[in-house]
């Protein structure tokens, strides 16, 4: 029992002193916002004394009408879009999990079922299990116009991936190795399937150390830190390599940028903006929204139980 309590204290201390990681997908709910914050978000609306989530009917333009809403008859209604609601091939191609067939939009079945008017539309087709497609060539179906055979479309087929290790020169080292990895030439004179998941993955790949997330340290590619930021204007947050999260930074009295361990340096104007809406201004302080805080605590409790 004492061991569990000790572990819990260590974890809670670590939680209190840890870097602030901002999850861009964990935005506060609209009712958490004060008016100035509420006005910044397209899906929130201010109603006299509180911030509310907009209803579908509150959207007056088609470009804002999405998610569980659909634009019908010149207005936004509460009706989530499905494949069959896509009116043409272009909109169908841009809607995940759908494909254009027999002049209508249907749920994705298999690559070979689809013939598209533009080759690149094969590439955006994707099944629920991650199946990817590519254009096979001109469709066997043709249209005759002024005695000339005109291609009606491009037949799609399953995406063919390459074995990067078969390429022996830098010039030939190219192509998709998997749905997320591409062939890249390494400084050891070999071709590899490359995917940037961590900065160290780019060790030896001269052009792949992305300066947005990483920095070069000799032949190594390492993480950037807040201390690498040299101006106060940019010392807000540092994106992590998946671009879904950021580390909160803080400009100090010594005119240096450091990693923040809390959000007390943020004010009413910067609190919501810098944290991508995951913090809000309440009782004159910048605080993480309750739902996000509870989720973080639960994660640590689960960790302790597993230990």
The secondary-structure element order is HEHEEEEHEEEHEEEEEEEEEEEHEEH
Helix content: 10-25%
Provide the domain count.
Answer: 4
- The parts where pLDDT drops under 50 for at least 5 residues are 1-17, 297-307
The N- and C-terminal alpha carbons lie at a distance of 13 Å
For the largest beta-sheet, the strand count, sense and barrel status come to: 4 strands, antiparallel
Cα radius of gyration in angstroms: 26 Å
Beta-strand percentage?
25-35%
Oligomer: single chain
Give the overall average pLDDT. 85
| Gross geometry | flat
Give the class from helix and strand content and strand pairing.
Answer: alpha+beta
Count of DSSP H/I helices: 6
The count of DSSP E runs of length 2 or more, i.e. the number of strands, is 21
Describe the structure.
This protein has four domains: 1-28 and 229-307, no CATH class; 30-79, no CATH class; 83-158, no CATH class; 170-224, no CATH class. The protein is 17% helix and 27% strand. The protein has six helices and 21 strands. It has helices spanning 2-17, 35-38, 89-93, 120-124, 271-274, 290-306, and strands at residues 21-23, 44-47, 50-53, 70-72, 75-77, 98-101, 104-107, 115-116, 133-138, 142-145, 148-151, 154-158, 182-185, 191-194, 214-217, 220-223, 237-239, 245-251, 257-259, 279-282, 285-288. Keywords: Signal. Residues 1-18 form the signal peptide.
What characteristics describe this protein?
single chain; 307 residues; alpha+beta; 4 domains; four-stranded antiparallel sheet; three-stranded antiparallel sheet; 6 helices; 17% helix; signal
